[in-house]
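Q: Here's a chain of 311 amino acids. Please give me its 3D structure as tokens.
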Amino acid sequence: MKKLYPLYLLLFACLTGLFGQNVNYKITYDNPDFVPYWNLNLSYLDVEVPFSSIDAINFNASLWGNFEPAEGMGVDYRIRRSYLTMAQLGYSDAPSFNNYEFGAYYRFASSTKVRPTPIVLDIDWDADGDAFNDEEVFQVKSISVNAKNRRDYLLRAGFYHLSSPITVDEVSDINDMDIFADNLGRASINGLYAGIGIRSFKNVFIDTDNFGDQFNSRGRLIYIDAIFAGTSLSDPYEVPSTLVFNEDAAKDAIGSLPIGIRIGMNTFQVEKKSRTGKKFGMSTNYEVGYRPYIGWYLSGGLGLTLVKWNR
């Protein structure tokens, strides 16, 4: 790994600027002040990693976005379902991972300010014709322009459902018995989430002398939510002829904080194809948090913005 450290430093340097090259440009369009009427994103690689259970690591596909029929008031949604969980590699008919969220938001404040805004001009792979330590090197050429940046401050709340495989190592009930018959259970969370969000928009296009038309057209949502939900535990491998699964004993053995919490960030493209020349755009989503009886987790996803409809 030590031999890779210089490479990481070089890549970081490549990502920080234009390496002194002068670029003449003209701002042709700068408009972040619009109503994001409908935004729809597809995450084709959504990975979730619970800290307490290897079997509950899952790979998902998801649809998420927002619908804002009235300026400042809208609906958030997210639908996730696993196409693979680690439990499915070791168990037959293992529980899948499902997550459904539908909520509303209200914009209580907003501001638009001119700020330095980076715009990527070009990406060169192995630009000098040489590799560095036998590794491919890429160079990102970018420029910073003064452009309008808009921020919306949101109140948000909605319905929250999640079900997931769950395993608990070295935890037993008061009779020193494993809490799940085959060491694998199912957790289902149903309730509400409520919190705040900061949504920002950058939507600037420039015409350059050497790199043609380039742009930075992106929306970003950062949110912090509390999750007020009840959790039910069940044993998918319970044998009816044996002792009946005791959910209360399982909860006592596992233990939990009374509420959940999460912090997340979504990014998505906002401008239409007639300006970007691209039908779709890149989207990402990241989240870290705690769920009752499931525990701490980290998730991230990469995907496409399918619909970018603004008014």
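Q: Can you summarize the key feature?
A: Residues 1-20 have pLDDT under 50 and may be disordered.
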